[in-house]
Amino acid sequence: MATAPDKAHKKDPQDPLDLARRVLETEAQAILGLIPQLDGTFVKAVDLLHGCAGRVIVTGMGKSGIIATKLAATFRSTGTAASFLHPAEALHGDLGVVQTEDVVVALSHSGETEELVRLLEAIRRIGARLISMTGDPQSTLGQASDVALSCHVAEEACPMNLAPTASSTAMLALGDALALAVSRRKGFKEEQFANLHPGGRLGKKLMRVESLMKTGDDVPLVAPETAMLDVIHEMTRKRLGMTCVVEDGVLAGIVTDGDLRRHLTAGSSLLDRHASDVMTRTPVTIARSMLAVEALRLMEERKITSLIVAGPKGRIDGVLHLHDLWRTQMF
After folding, report:
1. What is the value of pTM for the model shown?
2. CA–CA separation, 104 vs 253, rounded Å?
3. Strand, coil or helix: what is 131?
């Protein structure tokens, strides 16, 4: 008797998991398919954006408009002044934001989006340069551009091959590649990224010690000859569990709560001594330019709660305490 085929290994077009796998595979292939399309045209686009004396104006309709909005945000967060312009609103007055020194980046999968095509003459009249990202570089938009970047895809992930899916994913990926290539060309650095993201977790991770350390009167300081009673008073008043020992304006050592406990355990008359008798002469120091996350790692490795921030000649710039890092909520 013939047996029924094993349905467990048969793809079911109605199975949501099968569809999800196909969508992800199609969109992944769409992105990979962009790689062989990259050529000198991409470099020209990077050159044009790097040399832009004004702003980058990103525009697109529908799903391309959503991608354009995200691309403008990516440009801004990586050091390039950019804004999104809705093409329909541009036709009704908002075109005034485009200036001669700007570069317009127009997104359209077909390259024939009516609102964008109607903008071409105005952009040329203003004198702004035009970069297009389109699935058809030979389209009206592509041919009118100074640089036309191809984001052609073989098919959409939509089962009907209609809804913008793989094409919008590819456009997003190509836009990210463009923005990051421009950022690299500009020499955009970590500290600049942190300055543009002061409220986010990423920005906090890139914060420098100098933006968190205690300075001025908040730094506990004593001289080597300071009596221990006064040393303890300074440590208590500044509430950092330590004090710097300074001689002629230069760091000579550190006295911590741990140093006090060790000398008390030894049975000596602690209050009859001076800072120089108790201090650790080779304290751990850091530079004010160190990343806060690196300072935190050093504290964890050394099992300490404070770090002295000092310059190359031993001049004290400040003190970083573990509580200062806690307040950033970076851990």
Report:
1. 0.65
2. 59
3. strand
